[in-house]
Amino acid sequence: MSTKFDLAAMKELPDSSGHFGPYGGRFVSETLMAALSQLEQTYEKLKNDPDFQAEFDKDLAYYVGRPSPLYHAERLSREVGGAQIYLKREDLNHTGAHKVNNTIGQALLAKYTGKPRVIAETGAGQHGVASATVAARLGLECQVYMGAEDVERQKLNVYRMKLLGAEVIPVESGTRTLKDALNEAMRDWVTNVDNTFYIIGTAAGPHPYPMLVRDFQAVIGREARQQCLAQTGRLPDALVACVGGGSNAIGLFHPFIGDETVRMIGVEAGGHGLETGAHAAPLCAGRPGVLHGNRTYLMEDDAGQIIGTHSVSAGLDYPGVGPEHAWLKDAGRAEYVAINDDEAMNAFRTLTQVEGIMPALESSHAVAHAMKMAADMDKDQILVVNLSGRGDKDIHTVAQIDGIIV
Amino acid sequence: MSRINSCFEKLGQQGRKALIPYITAGDPSPAVSVPLMHALVEAGADIIELGVPFSDPMADGPVIQLACERALEHNVRLVDVLEMVREFRQKDGETPVVLMGYLNPVEVLGYDNFASQAAAAGVDGVLTVDLPPEEAGEFGEALRANGLDCIYLLAPTTTEQRIQHICDSGSGYVYYVSVKGVTGSASLDVQAVAEKLDLVRKYTDMPIGVGFGIGTAEAAKAVSAVADGVIVGSVLVKQIAALADDQEKIPEKVAAIIAEMRAAMNA
């Protein structure tokens, strides 16, 4: 891995105005500027506060069930016939995905800032469930914005949120998916900024969100680094994680940014194939622009309008990506590839049948690419895959593809 | 002197306040916009805010979201909006036109290219909703270099320190967002607006326009008592939407709302 940048300095980003190189920043309407700078100040104070950190660590240990295991998928590795594949088991977290690491952290911020109400946007519903969960535990009012199309294809999670006491608000505007849910959540926040904390679900949006979401998710990479050293005596050769907004990937990558020998590969949703245009892969096939409060890679048309995306997995179906990934790509520190719907579905089945682990369709993209990569690597090399969530929520989608009504 | 400055100077001499209608360019179809702009001026509009359609209008309520969607069905691009301004200028060399929209369509053209094309088309100012002054360094320079005013928003939540920074960064006028919320929100509290404007005037001599939540002639009159300009959008766009199947009537019917507001403000 060669890069013309100082890796230690890169790890310290964003800069004081929230930029990762040319990316990130704070592109919002004036009404939110005060709330964002207040959040930034609160977070800067609390992140070095031992009491806050102790409470966060305690919740991660006793409520989420951390550390999550780093599991050597020996049978899968043998089948693939190359590198040793290790799975970082975020699917074993409470609520079934990495999302809860972040919602625990942001709910603590809501508590410390005294906001009685939280809102969230959600795509696949995992972040919505994780937000509803922490809201239930802290006794906060919770409303979750979800694209009407996603409400339809993620019925199970919609019902889980309702059981947890949250209100799910279907969003009918635009393409009726995650990006529109984010627009609507922002509109709610502008209107109710005095009493509401907005729990953004991914490492994107206006500063300080990309930074604080990454910091809360970086527990994934810190654990994986220690666990890999403890189990194998060395660092992995490569990390693989799926990228929608990119929070699970940045959580795994960030603690390794300074480890020059460790390759980092983000896997975007190739949908029906990059050549068809029906995908959700802005880093592979988009270009830089400004959306949802930050400058980053986007999927847009020639006139700068955001275009509809496609992925079999609702959680990756987003036209933007976190700004730190945009910078890691340009700086050459991380690589980004795309995996198509079909390849992800095959990986879903393979991991289920060979290891007895049913991955989320989002995570199946990472598994698919890891299997491709591992085949071309030596048996003594190590690949760590972030298994960011479990597949229970996707049973309906998979059954439908199989022509079965569950 | 810029068209915006001379507009406010003339109004000041006449002891009147600016009435500033907002419409989304190309809503419900591109042919409507220029005749509508002329009709608004005839009915008493002093400045026109022309909305540039965007796929993800985060700061707008449902009324203007739908206006964007109607315009985008006709694939109305930023360059098409500039073309409308050019056409408007053939008959009207005096009324200032301010483009209001989001940053991403401008990013595609490039700041310098956009600014020079906009100036050539006859645009006077640009208000980019999702571009606070902290991020607007290069963009502001490109606008200034082309003689365009960079208009910023102030909000009820804006701190005193930021008021100064924003007023120092902008020109033409400042746009005070009267309510915490999106465009077309519930009605505003004129007393609270008046108090905030007193604070803003400590930091700037620029005219202050007030918008968001002004939907009636009475509200326009009340706001004009405390502000230098009254900005109305959603109430006009609602009328436009209602006439989407009868587009020939749009200029007359929408201008009638402005005429009523003008009369109330002058009374």
SSE arrangement:
The complex is a heterodimer of chains A (406) and B (267).
Chain A (H helix, E strand, L loop, with lengths): L6 H5 L7 E2 L2 E5 L2 H17 L3 H15 L5 E3 L1 H7 L3 E6 L9 H15 L3 E6 L3 H13 L2 E7 H6 L1 H9 L3 E5 L6 H14 L4 E4 L9 H9 L1 H14 L5 E5 L4 H7 L9 E9 L10 H4 L1 E5 L1 E6 L24 H8 L4 E6 H15 L5 H15 L6 E6 L7 H7 L5
Parallel strand pairs in A: 4-14, 5-6, 5-8, 6-7, 9-10, 9-14, 10-13
Antiparallel strand pairs in A: 1-2, 2-12, 3-4, 11-12
Helix pairs in contact in A: 3-5, 4-15, 5-6, 5-10, 6-8, 10-12, 11-12, 15-16
Chain B lengths: L2 H12 L3 E7 L5 H13 L5 E4 L10 H12 L4 H14 L5 E5 L1 H7 L1 H11 L3 E4 L8 H9 L3 E2 L2 E2 L5 H10 L4 E4 L12 H12 L6 E4 L5 H8 L4 E4 L1 H9 L7 H17 L1
Helix pairs in contact in B: 2-4, 2-12, 4-6, 6-7, 10-12, 11-12
Instruction: Give the strand line-up of the largest sheet of chain B.
Output: 5-4-3-2-1-9-8-7-6
Shape of chain B: globular
Helical proportion of chain B? 40-55%
Q: Briefly, what CATH class of the domain at 3-148 and 229-266 in chain B?
A: Alpha Beta
For the record, what is the CATH homologous superfamily label of the domain at 3-148 and 229-266 in chain B? Aldolase class I
Helix run count of chain A? 17
CATH architecture of the domain at 3-148 and 229-266 in chain B: Alpha-Beta Barrel
Indicate the multimeric state.
heterodimer
Give me the CATH fold name of the domain at 3-148 and 229-266 in chain B. TIM Barrel
Range of helix content of chain A: 40-55%
Uncertain stretches of 5 or more adjacent residues of chain A:
none
- Quick check: average pLDDT of chain A? 96
Q: Any idea what the radius of gyration of chain A is? A: 19 Å
Terminal CA distance of chain B reads 29 Å
Overall strand count of chain A: 14
Mass-distribution shape of chain A = globular
The arrangement of helices and strands of chain B along the chain is HEHEHHEHHEHEEHEHEHEHH
